[in-house]
């Protein structure tokens, strides 16, 4: 089932669609970190991520009249951001369109809580491990960058942004089965990549 805007968000959206810039700025403050983190994980370039984040909100404001409220605002916004990332890749000729993956997959991608814990692990929990945390985050970024774009986006949306399957399907304009497949395959590839660097992983994430 698709998540709809909550009452507070719905009011901000209604005011924004009526031209209230203060209301739209509240939406920007609410979601800019989420958009920036998605783009940064996809591209690995902080300056470019900031530019695309700005472009995302400009595009959202221009097309706000097309938002109907059948889903929450955040997935709609992240879809704009991901489309801008793909536009950037196409302009740079770095990536090519990926063929649709099979919609069926036996694995349950939601079962991989450890991956989400690893991606979002908190360095403040053990300040002495801050350098190791930085190395781990760089390793994770390299691992994400090695994934096919559609798998990378699906893993980021699920494990970092915490979106539901239905919301991810909305962002990616695809079926739930394809979402499950992309997450499962992306996680498997990321685990295989991380397994090559066991010494950098916290003990609970190492293979026996």
Compact description:
The protein is mainly α and 208 residues long. 64% of the residues lie in helices and 0% in strands. It comes from Thermogemmatispora argillosa.
Task: Give the total of beta strands.
Answer: 0
Distance from first to last alpha carbon? 39 Å
Order of secondary-structure elements: HHHHHHHHH
The largest pleated sheet is described as:
none
The computed structural class is: mainly alpha
What is the CATH class of the largest domain? Answer: Mainly Alpha
Number of domains: 2
**What is the CATH superfamily classification of the largest domain?**
Winged helix-like DNA-binding domain superfamily/Winged helix DNA-binding domain
Task: Give the overall shape.
Answer: globular
Query: What's the alpha carbon Rg, rounded to whole Å?
Result: 18 Å
In percent terms, what proportion of residues is strand? under 5%
Give your account of this protein's structure:
The protein is an all-alpha fold and 208 residues long. It has two domains: 7-92, Rna Polymerase Sigma Factor, Chain: A, CATH 1.10.1740.10; 109-205, Winged helix-like DNA-binding domain superfamily/Winged helix DNA-binding domain (Arc Repressor Mutant, subunit A). It has nine helices and no strands. The protein has helices at residues 7-17, 21-43, 46-62, 73-92, 113-119, 130-145, 149-160, 165-172, 176-194. It is globular, with a radius of gyration of 18 Å.
């Amino acid at each position: 089932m698709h998540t709809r805007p909550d009452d507070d968000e719905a009011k901000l959206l209604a005011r924004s669609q009526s031209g209230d810039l203060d209301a739209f700025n509240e939406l920007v403050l609410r979601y800019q970190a989420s958009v920036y983190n998605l783009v940064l994980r996809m591209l690995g370039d902080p300056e470019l991520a900031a530019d695309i984040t700005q472009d995302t909100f400009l595009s959202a404001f221009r097309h706000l009249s097309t938002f109907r409220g059948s889903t929450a605002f955040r997935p709609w916004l992240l879809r704009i951001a991901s489309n801008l990332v793909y536009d950037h890749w196409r302009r740079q000729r770095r990536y090519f369109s990926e063929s649709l993956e099979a919609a069926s997959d036996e694995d349950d991608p939601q079962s991989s809580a450890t991956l989400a814990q690893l991606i979002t692990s908190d360095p403040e929990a053990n300040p002495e491990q801050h350098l190791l945390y930085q190395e781990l985050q760089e390793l994770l970024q390299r691992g994400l960058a090695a994934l096919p774009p559609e798998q990378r986006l699906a893993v980021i949306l699920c494990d970092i942004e915490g979106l539901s399957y239905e919301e991810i399907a909305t962002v990616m304009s695809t079926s739930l089965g394809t979402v499950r497949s992309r997450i499962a395959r992306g996680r498997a590839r990321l685990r295989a990549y991380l397994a090559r660097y066991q010494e950098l992983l916290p003990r609970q994430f190492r293979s026996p």
